[in-house]
Design a protein that fits this description.
The protein is of the alpha+beta class. About 55% of the residues lie in helices and about 20% in strands. The chain has a four-stranded antiparallel beta sheet with strand order 1-2-3-4, covered by helices on one side. The longest helix has about 100 residues, at about 1-105. The radius of gyration is 43 Å and the shape is rod-shaped.
Length: about 200
């Protein structure tokens, strides 16, 4: 009986020792984790404060330099005001010429090459042969561009479907030179009518 009691007491002591060892290990791990979080948090705060100080100092130097730059610009503007007033009229004429060129597509005339003339219509496009519609006006512009005949000097003999949903065909003549053309137009989405063939007819 005594041996059994001793054996049991030893087992209990061993169990208690294991439990205590596990508890001590867990407490030690918790201490390490808490200490790590504290130190890493302090380093982040230190880094952020140093970065804020650097950005503030940079902003201050930029403000000082911008004040100096503005004063220099005011002096230069006073000197240049007379030159700008002289060159302003020349620049206005040049800009007007450039805008006119950018609005007109390249090429044109019976020999081509032809580009889409541009459009103010939204997609999906619907063909219209009503002479008051925007589509009709843009087709007339494309015919004028393809034949190099001004709209006010062009007689339209016929303008209608060219055999497809996006194809139109027109027959026009120059009032001055009396030259007649058959012109085939194709609708290019979001770019407008593009001449694809110009044929002189008798």
């Amino acid at each position: 009986m005594k041996r059994n009691q001793r054996y049991e007491t030893r087992l209990e002591k061993r169990k208690q020792n294991r439990f205590l060892n596990i508890a001590i290990g867990l407490v030690f791990l918790l201490i390490v984790v808490v200490a790590f979080n504290l130190f890493s948090g302090d380093e982040n705060e230190t880094a952020s404060t140093s970065e804020n100080e650097q950005t503030e100092s940079k902003n201050e130097t930029k403000d000082d330099s911008s004040i100096e730059m503005e004063s220099d610009k005011e002096d230069q503007n006073d000197d240049r005001s007379s030159d700008e007033s002289e060159n302003q009229s020349d620049d206005t004429e040049t800009n007007t010429d450039e805008e006119m060129q950018s609005e007109n597509p390249e090429g044109g005339g019976p020999e081509g090459p032809w580009e889409p003339i541009g459009t103010s219509q939204a997609e999906p496009h619907q063909k219209s042969y009503d002479d008051q519609s925007q589509d009709w006006k843009e087709m007339i512009q494309a015919l004028s561009y393809a034949t190099n005949i001004p709209e006010d000097q062009m007689t339209i003999f016929w303008l209608g479907n060219g055999g497809g949903p996006d194809i139109s065909k027109g027959t026009v003549q120059s009032n001055t030179e009396k030259i007649k053309y058959d012109v085939v137009l194709q609708w290019i989405p979001e770019k407008g009518w593009q001449p694809i063939s110009v044929t002189q007819v008798q």
